[in-house]
Design a protein that fits this description.
The complex is a heterodimer of chains A (326) and B (530). Chain A is of the alpha+beta class and 326 residues long. Chain A contains 10 helices and 4 strands; from the N terminus they run ααβαββαβαααααα. Chain A folds into 2 domains: 206 residues, Multidrug efflux transporter AcrB transmembrane domain (Multidrug efflux transporter AcrB transmembrane fold), CATH 1.20.1640.10; 85 residues, Alpha-Beta Plaits (2-Layer Sandwich). Chain A is 63% helix and 8% strand. Chain B is α+β, with helices and mostly antiparallel strands and 530 residues long. Chain B is elongated. The two termini of chain B are 22 Å apart. The chains are: A alpha+beta (326), B alpha+beta (530). The interface between A and B is large, with 74 and 75 residues.
């Protein structure tokens, strides 16, 4: 069995369709980030109190709110957990003021007392709580930001070292595009971005690079073999040659991540959502963003009268040695 | 080729066995228990409490300079008009000396430069005034000691909760922060209270004792102790059975009066303990010990149990020794730690609290395992269908990959978290990528007309570079996660790194060996099932 035995699609010719597709999703995401849901930060970053309560019978949101109101707690957000058909869990979130460093436990204590005395529908138990004060919130945010920055820099340097700078830049632009669309997806669906989601984002940065490198490796190999073909033709051929591997490999990784999304439970939901989107977009971007960018860069250099051949980059043996190996 | 194959096969078998050992050790008590003995579960899978607290070290600095300021004032009392004060509450590390006259300036200066105050920089600020500022190195020293003492105290208090495998350490995300992780506890509020509470440590004068049992003690006071006395018991540093003493009810010195306690040796080289009290307590203590030297003894009482009884050998102000026969070095260390940790040296506040209930932890494990098995099955079936014989190769490599990954975790005593399980699942997906790369390349080579053996050789040779490139980039981003991540995220990064390293071994070495073995059995012109 073999898909894509000898595909011969003109990928670069379709680059305007790709651009349009990417633009739609990026712009939608950016609009949502800027004007609609904003960046839905989890408690790790914005601070506050988040309590997950398990009720013995189906919880009544209105009654919960009343119970809290009567105890003087007014600024809570009560959400039921989706994704579990028999789940009787609710998440009660309180803003940062209830988790200040001096009165750290205040919010949780109030909620627990309020439910105990005022909620009569059923018994309950607290299964998870996260209380992040302002100091910790700031520290965690700073850490996450540095991690992402270092990751991108690290990738850029590695690619610069193994290929040429332009390859690195093209790959980083592709990765940036992927991250933007994924974060935009979180904003559009109003899902929280927590520390584990950041971990997922860093993973998908690595994965997208992965995928882009496979295509670049093939481009580099083909460039060394044929000096007379145009860059567009070489890139197209490279993509077609690696298409089989790309689709199957991404497909399999996507299968495992989908399994995580469907069966992995509610705690990992944000994490697996990020990976599901990330893997699809990451594969897409290697073909639709990184490769066209290489060609565009060369065309731009050509139009300014500079040398037109894209360097085949380091790490490739000279032609003589190549022939001997074959 | 056959000889090499044998060696390679043995190597793989050794690795396999080694990793199985890493996972289950020498199995006893059932398979599940053996695995859990080797692979630790994170808090998000076991359930437990995670606390980050901030130690307000500036209080320790403030009381250190307070104490020095008091001592200074006593020493400067002979120079009328000269005073030492702390003028700026925002700078607790500075003491200002004012009111010197040209006549006594040099004398005052020599007092300030004395050995006791070597932790300070003395600067003249004109008009006969001096400023003593604690050196940065001394401040850092004091902060670190305060932090260490806090950690010891908290550890002692947490021990009382009976937690297995508690983790208490300095937290490096911020200054002077401590991380406390307690698996198996589900009431964060209770734990927070215990840690913050002040333990009761007191020194009482001994009226009489020791008595072997309560009856003997009661007999000595005619049935009931008078209102200003109390009968307490304890091991008094001798180990073994409890002994009873009659003590005065009022304590001379309490826990909050101890600034420090360190094990040391007396003039005969025997282990003893030196301690430091606050100035105010020192005065009280001086009065008492001066009045009773040579005649009385005192009992150190911790949580209403007698820990140590010592004779009063001389008048003691702030700095004193607890000595006397029978103190071993270990006991000196543990007792001074207890004296030090009787109370926290500075107040603490909580900045982050997380609790995971045990039921949620168990659910998470269940969900993670189901997802892992589902993902793995999907991948394995696809590989069989799409690549036929070679698919078996890939599936074997995948299984081995998983065993090596878990083996690494067992050997390194790594902690498995819920994102870590996700990392395992991701490794399955990305791991099979290497095999796909190789197989696609081999198919290409076969299409070019090469024989099976050459196609395999060239396929591996070409795919090798790409495999390295892709693994390095993912390992780099996982390393960054390892450095910057905390707890669960660290677990994810670790499983990803282990998985990728294992994958390089299985995808390249093991797969190749299996191919070679298959080809060597079929002969040179055989077709390859791929």
């Amino acid at each position: 069995m073999e898909f894509f035995r000898s595909s011969n699609i003109d990928w670069l010719g379709k680059k305007w369709y790709f651009l349009g597709f990417s633009l739609i999703f990026s712009v939608a995401g950016v609009l949502s980030l800027a004007f609609w849901h904003g960046v839905p930060l989890g408690v790790d970053f914005k601070g506050g109190t988040q309590i997950k309560v398990h009720f013995d019978s189906t919880p009544n949101d209105a009654h919960i709110r009343q119970a809290l109101d009567r105890a003087g707690v007014h600024d809570e957000i009560v959400q039921s957990i989706s994704g579990g058909a028999t789940s009787n869990d609710e998440v009660i979130s309180l803003p940062l003021s209830t988790a200040s460093d001096t009165a750290h436990d205040q919010g949780r204590a109030e909620v627990e007392a309020a439910l105990k005395s005022n909620y009569k529908d059923s018994g309950f138990s607290i299964v998870q709580e996260d209380i992040v004060g302002p100091t910790a919130g700031k520290q965690l945010t700073k850490q996450a930001a540095w991690a992402v920055l270092y990751s991108l820099l690290g990738m850029l340097v590695y690619l610069w070292f193994r290929f040429e700078l332009i390859y690195g830049v093209a790959a980083v632009v592709a990765v940036f595009h992927d991250t933007l669309i994924t974060v935009g997806a979180f904003s559009l669906t109003n899902q929280e971005i927590t520390l584990t989601v950041i971990a997922a984002l860093l993973t998908l940065i690595g994965y997208s690079m992965n995928d882009t490198i496979v295509v670049f490796d093939r481009i580099r190999e083909n460039l060394a073999l044929s000096r007379r073909e145009s860059l567009s033709d070489v890139v197209n051929r490279s993509i077609n040659q690696t298409l089989s591997r790309t689709v199957i490999s991404s497909g399999l990784t996507f299968l495992t991540v989908l399994s995580l999304y469907l069966f992995g439970g509610e705690v990992l939901h944000g994490f697996s959502f990020a990976l599901v989107i990330g893997i699809l977009i990451g594969t897409y971007s290697s073909i639709a963003v990184a490769a066209p960018m290489l060609v565009a860069y060369q065309d731009w250099r050509g139009s300014r009268g500079k040398t037109v051949s894209l360097p085949a980059a380091k790490g490739v043996a000279p032609k003589g040695a190549r022939t001997a190996k074959r | 080729m056959n000889k090499n194959l044998g060696t390679k096969a043995i190597l793989i078998a050794v690795v396999l066995l080694g990793c199985v050992y890493g996972i289950i050790g020498i199995p006893h008590g059932g398979l599940k228990q053996s695995i859990l003995n080797r692979i630790h579960l994170g808090l998000d899978l076991k359930g437990g409490v995670h606390l980050v607290l901030q130690v307000h070290v500036e209080e320790a600095i403030s009381s250190a300079t307070d104490r020095d300021m008091q001592t200074l004032n006593t020493e400067l009392a002979q120079y009328s008009g000269v005073t030492a004060t702390k003028l700026d509450p925002k700078h607790p590390e500075s003491i200002t000396i004012s009111g010197t006259t040209p006549a006594n300036q040099s004398d005052v200066r020599s007092v300030l430069n004395a050995n006791e105050y070597q932790a300070y920089d003395v600067n003249s600020s004109g008009n006969g005034n001096y400023t003593m500022t604690m050196k940065q190195s001394s401040i850092r020293d004091l902060e670190q000691r305060t932090l260490d003492t806090s950690i010891e105290t908290i550890r002692a208090r947490v021990d009382a909760l009976g937690v297995s495998e508690p983790q208490i350490e300095q937290y490096n995300l911020g200054d002077n922060e401590i991380l406390v992780q307690l698996p198996g506890i589900d009431d964060a509020g209770h734990v927070e209270d215990i840690i913050q509470s002040t333990a009761k440590l007191e020194i009482h004068p001994v009226v009489s004792g020791p008595y072997d049992n309560e009856a003997a003690a009661l007999a000595a006071v005619n049935g009931a102790p008078p209102p200003d006395q109390v009968i307490l018991k304890g091991t008094a540093g001798n180990g073994g059975t409890d002994q009873y003493y009659i003590l005065k009810r009022a304590a001379i010195v309490e826990g909050t009066d101890f600034r420090d306690a360190q094990p040391s040796t007396d003039e005969n080289g025997r282990p003893d303990i030196t301690f430091t009290l606050t100035t105010e307590a020192g005065d009280r203590f001086y009065k008492y010990t001066n009045d009773n030297k040579g005649t009385g003894s005192m009992a150190i009482v911790l949580e209403n149990r007698i820990r140590e009884v010592a004779g009063i050998e001389g008048a003691i102000r702030e700095q004193g020794r607890i000595s006397g026969g029978g103190i071993s070095q270990e006991y000196a260390q543990s007792l001074s730690m207890m004296l030090r940790t009787g109370s926290l040296p500075a107040s603490i506040s909580y900045i982050e609290t997380r609790t995971v209930g045990p039921s949620l932890g168990a659910e998470s494990i269940h969900a993670g395992v189901v997802a892992a098995i589902a993902g793995m099955l999907a991948v394995m079936i696809f590989m069989l269908v799409y690549y036929k014989g070679a698919g078996v190769n890939a599936d074997l490599a995948l299984l081995l990959n998983l065993i090596i990954l878990l083996g690494f975790m067992g050997f390194f005593s790594a902690t498995l978290t819920l994102p870590g399980i996700a990392g395992v699942i991701l490794t399955i997906g990305m791991g099979v990528d290497s095999n796909v790369l190789i197989f696609e390349r081999v198919r290409e080579e076969l299409r070019l007309g090469k024989t099976a053996a050459i196609a395999v050789q060239d396929g591996f040779a070409h795919a090798w570079i790409t495999i390295i490139d892709t693994h390095v980039t993912t390992v780099v981003s996982a390393l960054i996660l390892l450095v910057f991540g905390s707890g669960p995220v660290k677990g994810f990064a670790l499983t990803l790194i282990f998985g990728l390293l294992a994958n390089i071994f299985t995808a390249v070495f093991v797969s190749r060996t299996i191919f070679d073995w298959g080809l060597s059995r079929k002969g040179r012109d055989a077709a390859l099932s791929i």
